[in-house]
Design a protein that fits this description.
Alpha-Beta Plaits
Length: about 400
């Protein structure tokens, strides 16, 4: 493990309090400025749209989560904030763990290249540089369950760092270089073992909403959240597309391909096939524990499905609203009408993608509670919604 001397700012995030009502993401008071000594790590899959159109959306999601898994494993002694974006991730790295974070990202790049035949891009940007041009990086902790908090971000600084990393001119200065080969142990805890979870109400909607500042009567995200609640006839709480009764573990070897690639670092061969077979046997045991409600170690078959639902990231904020919701056709109609009205009025940009199921990619640190489940809509979800929103931004 790469280790530099401790920095006084390393414990910044661990010392923050938390809030537990999602509506508070619109409140400036819950956010705290990130120290300028920290770094923004941005990753994304190059050519993700083409990969998704080729049916590889599950693999794209797996690579988005792989960076989070690797960096958390590389920095196990410190809490730091991160967010999953569908085809990538954004993380804030403590200054005393910069080289550990860089090395972990390099592992994820090597994994994408060797096991998936894809290119994962990664770049590190100092928070101080973002602030030097007027950007702000602010963070808050949202408690999604008794055991787990998630980071929320505001200030626009993450979007600025992402543009720099992706820009052909500035990108090379920030780029992380891939490791010669990935160490599969870097991704311990990564799991991709659930079937897509079908909608129980109609369709699974992946939604992005970006407030357009400076318009008359603009109330920012507070107004947007209220508008969404009015359009849907209810708050987004309770619209999580993951239902314990509809969750099923993968059946057969083919659905375990992404899981095996991450675990072994190869796309085929003996190690890959042995891992799939071993995992398949483990899932059969898991099904028995679910059916019988038995507890083995810290895994409780009677309660684990409910814990998974509680620990999903189906609504979040990272300089814009991101949600994966289970909606009826009428709710979708009203939602589209509201968003189109707000976009026409110059108050928002948005992207919306419909699918028949939600995908879940998991990071399990501890079956006793420390597990987080990253959601996206099937067939591209966030990435396809982002493409729609970028078209609006270009036209605006």
């Amino acid at each position: 493990m790469h280790r530099t001397p401790p920095h006084p700012d390393d414990g910044f995030y661990a010392g923050l309090g938390s809030f537990d009502r999602f509506e508070e993401v619109a409140c400036d008071s819950v956010y705290t400025a990130v120290p300028p000594s920290w770094w923004v790590l941005v990753t994304d899959v190059r050519g993700s749209t083409q990969a998704i159109e080729a049916g590889r959306y599950k693999e794209v999601n797996a690579l988005g989560v792989s960076t989070i898994t690797a960096v958390v494993n590389a920095i196990p002694d410190l809490e730091f904030p991160y967010a999953f974006g569908g085809d990538g991730a954004t993380l804030l790295i403590p200054p005393g763990r910069l080289e550990a974070g860089r090395a972990a990202a390099a592992q994820a790049l090597a994994l994408a290249r060797d096991a998936f035949g894809m290119e994962l891009r990664a770049g590190l940007v100092p928070v101080a540089e973002v602030e030097a041009v007027g950007g702000r990086v602010r963070v808050a902790r949202f408690r999604i369950s008794g055991a787990v908090t998630m980071a929320m971000f505001s200030g626009g600084g993450l979007a600025l760092a992402e543009r720099w990393v992706k820009d052909p001119t500035s990108g090379p200065r920030h780029a992380v270089i891939a490791a010669p080969a990935a160490d599969p142990g870097a991704f311990d805890g990564f799991q991709c073992r659930w079937r897509p979870v079908p909608s129980r109400r109609g369709r699974v909607v992946s939604l992005l909403v970006l407030a357009r500042r400076g318009t008359a009567g603009d109330r920012g995200y507070e107004g947007i959240l209220e508008g969404l609640s009015v359009a849907l006839g209810r708050a987004v709480e309770g619209l999580c597309p993951i239902d314990p009764e509809r969750m099923q573990l993968a059946d057969g070897l083919a659905p375990l391909s992404a899981d095996a690639r991450v675990a072994t670092g190869v796309p085929s061969g003996l190690r890959y096939n042995l891992h799939r077979a071993k995992t398949w046997v483990g899932l059969r045991i898991g099904n028995a524990l679910f059916r019988l409600g038995w507890k083995v170690g810290r895994f409780n078959g009677a309660t684990y499905r409910q814990e998974v639902v509680a620990n999903t990231d189906y609504r979040k904020f990272d300089d814009l609203l991101r949600m994966v919701l289970d909606l009826t056709s009428e709710e979708i109609r009203r939602l589209r009408a509201y968003l189109e009205s707000e976009q026409s009025a110059g108050r928002v940009f948005y992207g919306l993608h419909e699918a028949d199921a939600a995908l879940m990619t998991c990071f399990i640190r501890d079956f006793g509670g420390q597990h987080l489940h990253f959601l996206d809509g099937s067939n591209g979800g966030y990435a396809m919604a982002a493409r729609q929103m970028k078209q609006q931004l270009g036209a605006g």
